[in-house]
Q: What sequence folds into this?
């Protein structure tokens, strides 16, 4: 195969540049011309005779699986090192060859919602008066907004031999569980001490949109139904269930229903009772009344296994999210 003959002479390159035809001047309108040596502005497309710029069609929305492509952070160490994570330790110690896994519902707040949550955390920090170091889950180290979630499992650890079977069973259980798309809304702000973590979380408890404000009964029948399915699959693989302590210490679904939440911050420090109550009451201010009206749509469950995130759509259903025909899960 013959090699391409590239000239090594810089003078040849210079000569070829001088042989290029001079750049043409582009008119913008009837009176303005571009100045030699400067980039000219692109012509503006106009409609009709009024000279007004035409409106471009809005970009189509990104698919719900788009964020799954960028759900994992860069690995900084092959061993557990709390110094890389603000002192945090794994709830489930990593075992070489096992796959850290999690079942959850993802929520990507809109820009106005994100800004409101940032203000909420800042107001809570003000009430803490600098006595408690509060880290937030809203922003990455690079300043980018992060997705939030509602957990449907504890941190899991799957073997290589079992991870594919787990995903298949989880998808089957979720899609045959008679739960279709539904919505939840923020209900209250609270502090939550995880039973298997040293951290205290600042959380927003959620309630089913259809049952919000109706008083008695389970606040989240759809989430409770999904949790039972996810816990059932986890137990088949020897994994601990989520919110088992709520079932043991409460009255069934009603006790479990109040446990679902979205974590927006965390701390190692224990705020005093008075300070803690002041911080929680921030959510009741009139400026956050709109937050309690938000609707967080739930149409799928995410299964994160290692660095891969799998999208499992819920079955189709009418209002209320009960009953439906399942769709095919998106494993990739």
A:
């Amino acid at each position: 195969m013959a090699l391409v003959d590239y000239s090594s002479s810089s003078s040849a390159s210079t000569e070829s540049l001088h042989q290029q035809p001079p750049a043409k001047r582009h008119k913008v309108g009837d009176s303005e011309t571009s100045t030699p040596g400067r980039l000219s502005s692109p012509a503006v497309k106009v409609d009709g005779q009024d000279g007004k710029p035409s409106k471009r069609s809005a970009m189509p929305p990104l698919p719900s699986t788009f964020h799954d492509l960028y759900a994992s952070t860069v690995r900084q160490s092959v061993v557990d090192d709390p110094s890389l994570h603000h002192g945090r330790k794994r709830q489930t110690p990593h075992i070489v060859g096992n796959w850290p896994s999690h079942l959850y519902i993802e929520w990507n707040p809109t820009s106005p919602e994100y800004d409101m949550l940032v203000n909420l955390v800042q107001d809570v920090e003000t009430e803490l008066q600098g006595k408690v170091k509060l880290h937030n889950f809203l922003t990455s180290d690079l300043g980018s907004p992060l997705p939030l979630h509602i957990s449907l499992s504890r941190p899991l650890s799957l073997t290589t031999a079992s991870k594919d079977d787990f995903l298949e069973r989880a998808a089957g259980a979720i899609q045959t569980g008679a739960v279709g798309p539904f919505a939840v809304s923020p209900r209250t702000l609270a502090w939550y001490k995880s039973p298997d973590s040293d951290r205290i979380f600042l959380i927003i408890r959620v309630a089913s949109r259809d049952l919000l404000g109706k008083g008695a009964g389970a606040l989240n029948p759809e989430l409770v139904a999904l949790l039972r399915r996810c816990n059932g699959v986890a137990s088949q693989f020897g994994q601990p269930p989520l919110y088992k302590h709520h079932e043991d210490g409460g009255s069934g679904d009603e006790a479990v229903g109040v446990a679902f939440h979205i974590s927006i911050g965390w701390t190692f420090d224990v705020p005093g009772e008075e300070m803690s109550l002041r911080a929680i009451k921030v959510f009741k201010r009139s400026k956050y009344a709109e937050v309690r009206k938000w609707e967080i749509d739930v149409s799928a469950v995410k299964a994160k296994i290692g660095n891969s995130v799998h999208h499992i759509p819920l079955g189709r259903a009418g209002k209320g999210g009960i009953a439906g025909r399942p769709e095919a899960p998106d494993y990739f």
